[in-house]
Amino acid sequence: MSFALLGIGVCDGVAIGSARLISTVDFEVVRRPVAEADIEKEVARFEKALAQAKNEIRHLIETSAETLPEEVQAFLRSHLLMLEDANIAHKPIERVLEEHCSAEWALKESLDRILKRFDDIDDPYLRERREDVIQVAGRIMKHLQGAPEVHLPKGEPIIIVAHTLSPADLMLLREQQVAAFITDAGGVTSHTAILGRSLGIPSVIALRNAYHLIDNEDTLIVDSAEGVVLVAPSEEEYSEYQLRQRLFQIEQQKLERLTTARAVTLDGVEVLLEANIELPSDMEAVHAVGAEGVGLLRSEFLFLNRTDIPSEEEQFMAYREVVESMAPFPVTIRTLDIGADKTSSGLPSAGDLPLGLRAIRFCLAEPQLFQTQLRAILRASHYGRARLLLPLISSFAELEQALRHIEQAKRSLRAADQPFDADIAVGMMVEVPAAAILAEAFARKTDFLSIGTNDLIQYTLAVDRNDALVADLYDARHPAVLRLIAMTIAAATKLNKPVSVCGEMAADIHCVRLLLGMGLREFSLHPAKILAVKREIIRADVAKLEGKVARILKTNEPERLQQLLGEIDLL
Length: 571
Ligand code: PEP
Ligand code: MG
Known about the structure:
With about 575 residues, the chain is of the alpha/beta class. Helix content is about 50%, strand content about 15%. The strands form 2 sheets. Strands 1-8-7-3-4-5-6-2 form an 8-stranded mixed beta sheet. α4 crosses α5 (about 105-120) and α14 crosses α15 (about 395-415). Bound molecules: phosphoenolpyruvate and magnesium ion (MG).
C-alpha cells in the first residue's frame, strides 16, 4: 500500500529508487560475564576495535582530502577527537577490569552515562552533538560485533533508509551509487543535514518512523524540496514524479545558461548578486554561478567542530584565500557570530539562548579574541577587497565600542608594519528591530548595512528560529517585518549607502519582487539559489512593482496583504 512520510528536506531535487535499510549497529547488548582468565583478552578486543575505528576515519580523511568539503573533513576530525576522549577510550576498559563484563556491555554502559548528561542540556546545538557521540561509539561497536559493511548492488538507484547516519557513513555511501538518503533522526542544523546539503544529495531527515515503516526494496520517491517521502507509490505518482525529476533537471540546465547573464530587470535596473559562504572551500560553488562578490562570510564556521580557537595566522590564511579568490570583487567578512545555536567547545561560554550573550556582545566581552579576528581580517584586506561586517548591533554604544576595537587593531598592525587596507569599509547587520528603527542614524555611522532577515524575523515576532513548535509563526511576510526591512532600505538609500539583504529571504524566489519593489539592489544568498533569483530579477519590472509594494507596506489586514502579494507575482 502506498503512503507518504513527512520530514525535513535538506536541499532541492527528487530521487526515485529502491530502499536499502541499513542498521549501522546494535546497541541492544546483554551483559555477558567474562572469566578472570579472559579479562586481558577482552581489553585487547576493545583496544583493537577502538584502533580499527580510528583507522577507518583516518583512512577516509587521507584518501579523500582532495574531494571532501572542508566542513566534512572537520566532522571527521571531530569524530577522531571523540575517539580519544577518556569517556569513550578508557572508561569501557576500566569497566571491563572492574566489573568483569564484556567489552560490548562496557561500551554500552559508558555510552549510556554520557547520554544521560546530554539529556540535561538545553542547547539545541549541543544536543545534536549527542548524535555524534552515538555515531562514534557505534563505530567501535561495529568492530566489536563484526557488523557487516553495506555493499550495494551497482547500477540501480538506491535510497538509503537509516535511523541515523554519521557524516562518515555518508561519505562511504557516496562512493557507492546512492541516489538519496532518509533518516528518522536529525534536525536542520544536524551534521548530516549540513553534509547532505553540501554534497547535493536529495535527502529528507527527521522522519521519526521511516526505518520501521519501510521494507528493503520498497520503491521510494524522495522529494527533498518538500520534505516528503512516498513509499510504494502508485503508478500515477510514479510517473508524476518521474516527470518532476526530469523537469527539475531541465530547470537546472536552463538556469546554468544564466551564469554569465547580467542581473538586470526588464526596465534596466541593475542588481548585484553576491554569495553567502561558510568556509573557503565554498568558493568553487561561488564561481560556478558567477556571483559578483561574497556578501556574507559567516566567519564563526571556522570556529565550529573543534576544541581550540583558530589562531590569527590560521584565520588570516582562510580570509586571504577567499579575498584573493574573489578579487576584484568584494568579500564581506562578518565578525564572529557565536552563541544561540552556534557554539563551540573551543570557546569560553557563549550564551546558548537567542537573546543571550551572542555575536557582537560576546566579542566585546572577549576583547582578545575579537582583536585576533579583527587583525586577521584587516591583514587579509591587503590582498583584494575586503569589507568588515558587525553582527547583531542593537545600540550606538555597541557600535562605537566595536569601531574603537577596529581602530585599535589597525594601530597594532601599523606598529608591527603589517600592511592592510586603511580604508576598509565597515558595515553592520540590521537584524534586531532596534537597528531597523534607527537605520538612518546607524547608516550615518557606518559604510553599509546588511539586513539579516533570519534574525530580524525571530526578534520582531518573538519566534525562536530553531524551534519547530513555533515554525508556523515565523513569517517573513508579516507586515511588521516588511516595514522594518523597507525602512532600512529607504534609510540607507537616502544616504547613498549600500544596503543588502543576506538572510534566507534573499534566496526566496517569492520575495524577490517584493524586495526589488522596496528598492533593494543587492542580494546575498547561498550559491545554489543565485541563478534562480537572477531569473526572477530578469523577469521583473521595478517601475511596475514600486506602486504595488508601496500599497503592500500600508496594508495590515492579512487577507488583503495576501491578495496584493499574489498580484505582484503576476506583474
Ligand atoms: C540573518 O540573521 O539573517 C543572517 C544572515 O545571519 P545568520 O543566519 O548567520 O544568523
Ligand atoms: Mg543573523
